[in-house]
Amino acid sequence: MTVEEGSRAGLRARLRGPVLSVWAKHDRDSDAWLPLWRHMEDSAAVAGLLWDEWLPLSVRKLIAAELPGGVEDARRLAVWLAGVHDIGKATPAFACQVESLAQVMRADGLEMRSQRAMGAERKSAPHGLAGQVLLGEWLEERYGWTVAQTGQFTVAVGGHHGVPPEHGQITALDRHPQLLRTPGGSSALWRRVQLELMEACAAEFGVHDRLSAWRSVKLPQPVQVVLTALVIVSDWIASNPELFPYFPEDVPRTDEERIAAAWQGLNLPRAWHAEEPTDDVQELFASRFALPPGAKIRPVQEAAVELARTMDTPGLLVIEAPMGEGKTEAALAAAEVLAARSGAGGVFFALPTMATGNAMFPRLLHWLEQIPAPEGARHSVLLAHSKSALNEDFTDLMDRGQVKALDLDAADDQQDSQPYSRRTRSASAELVAHAWLRGRKKAMLSSFVAGTIDQLLFAGLKSRHLALRHLAVASKVVVIDEAHAYDTYMSVYLDRVLSWLGAYRVPVVVLSATLPATRRRELVEAYSGRKKADSRDFDAVAQAGEYPLLTAVAPGGAPVLRRPAASGRAVDVQLERIDDDLALLAERLENELEGGGCVLVVRNTVRRVVEAARALRERFGDSDVTVAHSCFIDVDRAAKDASLLNRFGPPGKAEGRPAKHIVVASQVAEQSLDVDFDLLVTDLCPADLLLQRMGRLHRHRRGGENQVERPVRLRTARCLVTGVVDWTADVPEPVRGSVAVYGAYALLRSAAALLPHLDGGPRRPVRLPADISPLVQHAYAGESAAPPGWAQGMEAARARYDELRADQAERAATFRLGAVARAGRPLFGWVTAGVGDADDTSRGKAQVRDSRENLEVVVVQKNEDGTLATVPWLAPDRWGRPLAGLALPTDQVPTTLAARTAASCGLRLPIQFSYAETMDQAISELEELHVPAWQVKGSQWLAGQLILALDENCQTQLAGFTLRYSKSDGLEVTRT
């Protein structure tokens, strides 16, 4: 608190007469209310505390850099905007809404028509827009600002309910001045009240003598965004009656006591302040990641940390290195350094899927527990995806906070009041999932987040409260994993988000084992913000063929390349074609497994997974074949992943590796599972994904370099490539399911790149990691020559591919956020023609992924007597409580344990149910099992869910399909 602030008189002392009757908040149940002056002062005080204790240094520096008085100016501006944000409530259009309070104001001379008399006209003057107009007028009249100068400041007032006003809305309000001041005798009084409040705010919050100096400022749009977000957060906290009681107050307090009690009740964790580690890189990794005795860090890890330390300005760092090379640890170590250098207040680790997010979350927690922290420090953490409330690592951290989260612009998020347990952790800093930082709009404001890439892409989607998402990412170091995994549609959003992150000067770490050079250049150019005319500096980025490779660029800067040595870990993989014949596959595996061994069979569709597993079980028996794909209920999918890691994970960590076993899996085996197999069979897929699959082959040394602990026949790494109708055709023809998933062109380019390595070709075997980059670049290079005889087929496939990419880019651009505009240009219309609210439901994800909306259900069992229960094969929980067959009564809310267990059995139905007509029919049939008793406020686990009831044979009919489910094979769908 500054000396000036310590001598403040308080807003109330600066006001007299009718202005004191202007109201801001009202509770219909109790008839309690809050004067506008009180809410203004509360909001300003919260903004000051957020600035001092919660807002990261990086964001404070971003704002301060644009103001003549630096940090002091920046704080004053933030506090003043938060204080004056609701000035639009001092208007007839707002005040008429509560007749009893309007009558008090009329008695003081502030005349207004009734709400009914105003009718639809009121919609032209939402109080945010009204406040923006009033504040702009005052700045023009009082300080000589021009209209062009005011908007960049006043938009924070106009946009504090989530959507900055559009030019048309501003013009429309200009045509209805009676909404701002009632015409006639009281017009002058309305004007006096409004001016009195704005003058009092300017004096109380110390900006009177600064506004003239700020007239020449041109605020960059990123600064306008974070100021708007800070106003929103301040308003939401100050609007919580549990923290800031309405009048009459239960306990009379001074202003200072009121604010202190509220802040103590909120108990918000302070901003993380990273200290740059001074250890050498080996010591840093040993202290953060518990390296085994004698283990040495990899060259790429050391080089990544050194580059993070020596970049002129923290910026974008792209780490390309082989699978299993420790990129995740390199990213976290670099993030700690970059956070210390930039002042970032946290880390967001973005991953492709919920499964990879779940796998990353405990690793993030473990890293956090190793970071030195002051005594008593607390960090807010989040697992950011739609099923996070079912993740035990996350729910263990749920704080039983005293504060109920309040979102004034939407119904209370159900997550805000869910019952969570908390388990004490031993950590340098206490890790909590803070109660106030819950709900879809605020959760990403937590300091440390692991979640799906969608949460990052939403920052590029025009949507309500986008400013909050931008504040969330602007406050952190952002890590983007598996950067090769995102298609053209998602890349359109990702590139735009990177351009904004560069404008915010947010450090970003991008990870990939198989990144095409053209994509590397696009990512670096997007972040740098350099104009296309300067693109010659980036030619070297696209031309670099070394591997591993580090690429760095600062905002507005030129790229820097580093070429660390390979670690020396190498695997030679022999590639062989095999016909797409299940009987042949079974016979081949029987021969290969004569001496035992563990095989991974990866298929490109769930149907092919199930068909292959069925054929292999006939040959090997049920106990020797495991199925893994995406069509399992959530709890079974998590158990599958845990089982795979437990049986096929690294030596020393995995237990009970079977002597002989076959895992038949879909793409779920490609990413972020540290599993190791003796033999790989895979459908033909794009080259980068094929290499990811090879990363699960001889991933670890078992018995030294000669792999003597593997079966003799399988000590040489081999990959059998199938999924092609006829390998001997003039142009190979991939199976239909693979074409539907990846497109013919990507598959043919992959096959062309692999040809020299197949069946004793001139470049056999594939040498990992040396061949990773050459294979990826060959498969994705725009002008690679087609193999003899393939040209016509490749050209036709290329035409379809180019058409699809153009279509994806065009559709993605529809709701994509605009580029960062010139400094000083207001955010008016920033999210015009947007999607409304963005969230991580299947519908929300479909906005940033080129996928159809999925239908999600909760799977239960319907007994013969018609009662419902949880499915019968569930194992007890970690406290030994049975979960199988728990009753789900339909005349009341089930017990918390039963309801949560049922919710953990969520299932995303396959693509057959994503087509409009089938989806509509399926929803109609599912809604026949609508349980009114489950839709009440206390039923947060099951309210609003579609229930899929299986009979006692685990079958049902839905929309013309027969659905069968088993714990071993998941969901099978056949047309009835």
Concise overview:
By secondary structure, the protein is α/β, with parallel strands linked by helices. It has 35 helices and 25 strands. It has a nine-stranded mixed sheet with strand order 6-5-7-4-8-9-3-10-11, sandwiched between helices.
Provide structural commentary:
The chain is an alpha/beta fold and 976 residues long. Helices cover 39% and strands 12% of the residues. It contains 35 helices and 25 strands. The strands form five sheets. The protein has a nine-stranded mixed sheet with strand order 6-5-7-4-8-9-3-10-11, with helices on both faces. A seven-stranded mixed sheet has the order 14-15-13-16-17-12-18, sandwiched between helices. Strands 19, 20, 21 and 22 form a four-stranded mixed sheet that branches. Strand 8, helix 22 (488-504) and strand 9 form a beta-alpha-beta unit. Mean pLDDT is 90; it is low at 1-7 and 399-428.
